[in-house]
Amino acid sequence: MIEIAVKYLEKVTGARPWTGDAERVCRGCVIDSRKVGPDSIFVAFPGERVDGNDYARAAIDAGAAAVVLTREPSRDLLRAADERGCAVFTCEDPTEFLLLLAQGYRARMRCTVVGVTGSIGKTTTKDVLAALLSTGYRVHVTRGNYNNLIGMPLTILDAPRDTEVLVLEMGMDGFGQIERLSRCAQPTYAVITKIGTSHIGLLGSRENIARAKAEIVSGMPPSSENFEGHHAALVLNGEDDYTPFIIENFARPAGIDVVLCGTSEDDDVSARGIELGEDGCPSFDLTFEDGAQIRTRLSVTGAQSVVNALFAIAVARRLGIPQHAVEEVLGSIEITGRRTEVRRSACGARIIDDSYNAAPESMAAALDLLRSLPADGDRIAVLGEMGELGDEGARLHELTGAYAAASHPDLLVCVGGENARRMAQAARLMGMAEDAVRVLPDTEAVISRLAGSLGAADLVLVKGSRFVGLDRFVEEVC
Hints:
By secondary structure, the protein is an alpha/beta fold. Helices cover about 35% and strands about 20% of the residues. It has 17 helices and 22 strands. It has helices at about 5-15, 55-60, 75-85, 95-110, 120-135, 150-155, 175-185, 200-205, 205-215, 245-255, 305-320, 325-330, 360-370, 395-405, 420-430, 445-450, 470-475, and strands at about 5, 15-20, 25, 30, 40-45, 65-70, 85-90, 110-115, 140, 165-170, 190, 235, 255-260, 270-275, 280-285, 295, 340-345, 350-355, 380-385, 410-415, 435-440, 460-465. β6 (about 65-70), α3 (about 75-85) and β7 (about 85-90) form a beta-alpha-beta unit. α4 (about 95-110) runs parallel beside α6 (about 150-155), α14 packs across α15 and α16 (about 445-450) packs parallel to α17. The two termini are about 40 Å apart.
């Protein structure tokens, strides 16, 4: 984790000092006063319900070496800080403080940084990449959902000083955010998994989503430069319709080389002959960037996971991970939970747990998996509403319902309000029988109506945005 003397905090971040021992060394950075340890930096974030400034005294008492506030400290607080040898700073923007502090620490580590963004597939790509690189490097990686303007710098600040590769997931919900993340992290390699419809309600169009995701090049050096022993590259989906747009408008003007991954022979790293096993895990012919080929298997369910693995492979090979290590890792990788994870329920039914989140594209991929896996009993799709689709929400829910009908489940359960009804109506319009489609208002109703009626031979897909809470149904039946 970061270790920095108090006297350097002002220089690195521009924060205003009020008091403190300039020579005291700070270790680690937190934004929750309950997590303050000896010598921590505590950064206070004001909020609508909780104001972190109110917990500065608690942080001082817990042993913080520095507290960073967004309002002028009281005399009593300064007195308490002096008694404990704690420095007090103020700043206008605590988010910018974190980003600048993390940027300075990242520069001191002199490690290789890989940034991962995209509408879907970020977490799978990140998990495969971390597993591959861990065979040859000391790797620190984004945990959970620490991928925003606060979470990503905290991830950097928590990295051990001897980290050799940082793998950072970068999320956003508006313009300018990924640019700020990229300028903080300064990635040598970056991946944009897919330009989908997540956040279309906030950004208005897929082109705007592409522009926002492509901001990841902002902090990258030109590929012509030798940056800490590497030459930068942007890894893109060869089959994504916005890839040419990103190349022409972002990668090429920035002088950054592009590596294409996909299922075409024209891609630099490609997968052909994809076949799903009975467990839903794909086998495929993998062609590396240097032309070498192997037949391999990925221990992650769904054909859609293959391209995500290719992104990771493209970066890992450029970082020198050998071919044999790639094959070994692909066959044993475990990804973050609730993403197309096949589980066994108490009654014996198989549950495809993809309840972490949902977008139209990932809904379609999950329905493809439901259709492709063998099942002696009923195939059941439990689909929750999708968020952040804005004015496109009605149309995209209708398209999802139509796609669900084309996947021919024996039972379709749509969970939520008006958009759930739209999914169901579209499915019926596309030919599903009235009694094969149900609309339930919430997860509790799904538990009540479905949990006790599953058969041992059934195959059940559970997918929806997080606000629907379908993970509670999975936990109820498994």
